[in-house]
Amino acid sequence: MATKEIKPADQWIDPATGEYRVIAPGQTFRSVTEKIVRIVLTPHTPMGWFALFTVAGGGATVLLTAVTWLFLKGVGIWAITQPVAWGFAIINFVWWIGIGHAGTLISAILLLFKQQWRNAISRFAEAMTIFAVVCAGMFPLIHVGRPWLGYWLFPLPFTMTVWPQFRSPLLWDVFAVSTYATISVVFWYIGMVPDLATFRDRSQNKFAQYFYGLVSLGWRGSIRHWMRYETASLLLAGLATPLVLSVHTVISFDFAVAVLPGWHTTIFPPYFVAGAIYSGFAMVLTLAIPLRKFYRLEALVTDRHIDNMGKVMLVTGFIVGYGYGMEAFMSWYSADHWEAFAFWNRAFGPMGWSYWVLIASNLVIPLTTLWFRKLRTNIAYMFFISIVVNTGMWFERFVIVVTSLYRDFLPSSWGTYRATKWDYMTFVGTLGLFTFLFLLFVRFLPMIPMNEIRMILPQAKIKPKATVEAGD
Amino acid sequence: MPAREGTYGLLAEFDTPSDLVRAASKAREDGWRRMDCYTPYPVEEAAEAIGFHRNKVPLLTLIGGLMGGAAVFALETWISVLAYPLNIAGRPTYSWPAFIIPCYEWTILWAGLSAAFGMLALCGLPALYHPLFNAPNFRNGATTDKFFLCLEALDPKFDLAETKTYLQSFQPNSVVEVDY
Prior knowledge:
The structure holds two protein chains of two kinds.
Chain A: H1 29-40, H2 47-73, H3 88-112, H4 118-143, H5 169-202, H6 206-215, H7 223-256, H8 268-294, H9 303-333, H10 337-348, H11 352-369, H12 373-376, H13 379-405, H14 421-444, H15 450-455, H16 464-469
Helix pairs in contact in A: 2-14, 3-4, 3-7, 3-8, 3-13, 4-5, 4-14, 5-6, 5-7, 7-8, 8-9, 8-13, 9-10, 9-11, 10-11, 11-13
Chain B: E1 7-14, H1 17-29, E2 35-38, H2 44-49, H3 57-83, H4 96-123, H5 138-141, E3 147-152, H6 160-168, E4 174-179
Antiparallel strand pairs in B: 1-3, 1-4, 2-3
Helix pairs in contact in B: 3-4
């Protein structure tokens, strides 16, 4: 799609504000419902969906293969050894969790700030969160080497009477990530209930009616239910906000609490959270751009959404940039030999290329171009940027994990790190699994919250005459 | 318990939320109490109109959150001090600052679960059957684009014929009788 000309006559521009419209003009309650319903309640699944599903299923199979072999042979098939004991598994864990954060930001934080443009993209951003957390949560579990003992992570009374150690950030992680996964699923499902009821009422075939009838819990749109539902949503949003900030903070503690130069910094928590949101918005764009094209949802996911996400990325990108700057500054200002060496080694050591990939794709490319509205509303360009930032953020985690570890205090223990094919297969496999789950979601569940879209239509405004009479 | 036979109530269908709010607030003024509105998205004004101002979800959330936080803090203390004391670099066994993080997470977890399940419980959901689903026009509209006002038979003012005329005076699309 070519860049849109910005002139007042453009139907996508709201003449009142001069901003791009959140929703295309001329929509009705029924038309927005039909737009979403027809995607799911159709007997004809588009061929493109099947094609993608096959590819994604292939990816998920690669993951299954890699993990099966891992369980048979042990973590030795990965490149992890001394001194780099944390390799791809932790990089991917942090990367995936970070991606999930944008979903919560859109669904919770922007809800609290009453940003109506979030409504159209909140549902699939939440779905993205959940599937990203699924992919992320797997990594620590398979990284422990004996995943069948994974339940030792939880404070459970079992016969060995061994209990977890509550002073360890790794245990805090267990609490943070499991809470995050649970609350995300609950928030997502509760949000979906009224839309599932719409599916129940609009579906023509018996099986769909039973299925959506069961999962919609008998929702009937009673105003008393709606008000409790609104309170619960608001509370869940209010709870998810400190939660999402705490999750990446706790993950950054895994690094920051260690005494390793390059990890032991106080900038880590805010810088991790900003980075998480940065990469998450990039992933929302990666998903939203093809989705709205494929399902012709440009009336609901408009250029305004793309534009706004570009702005959020610009801001979080600068916070991330500040983080990089502060790391560099502290390595000099601390006057600590090891800190200075860690930074020098990061940027100019044998793996220095990875640092420059991250600087180029997280700072140089996006932060010089996202200033321009013309570029922010150029769909092809934004898709490109989203891929660039996702790559850059993956490299950020690579830089943090690997380049801090492979050359530590004692030169005699220096080593290197080169990922094996099993590392790559596991990573590519999670991309496959993520896409696989996401495609299932798009096919069977409401990917755009219909009830929230109805709320922002002009018809939803109560006429003044009614409010005057409504006084108690 | 309401009687499970006969008429549940009368259901009036409106095209716009404004008509619904107008009708609902008039009915409330005229003394109706057993009534409810059904809308495809939350219409705050309609809740105000029928006099539903506050709900217990926040209270449940608060209780749940406090319980979650207290539960995990107690668990951490019991494990670290009594059940399985570990000497980690000479730190005191009761190292409460480190306990705050799981405590924080579980406060959120329990509060969130209480908000979600408490909301469902207060609404009486899941309830897969409801008399309103018997109304011929309910399912086509209530979750898509129509706005309903239901005056229930349990209200002392309810009289099938009179109430029907009363509802007609709001000029709805239709008024239908809903059976259990």
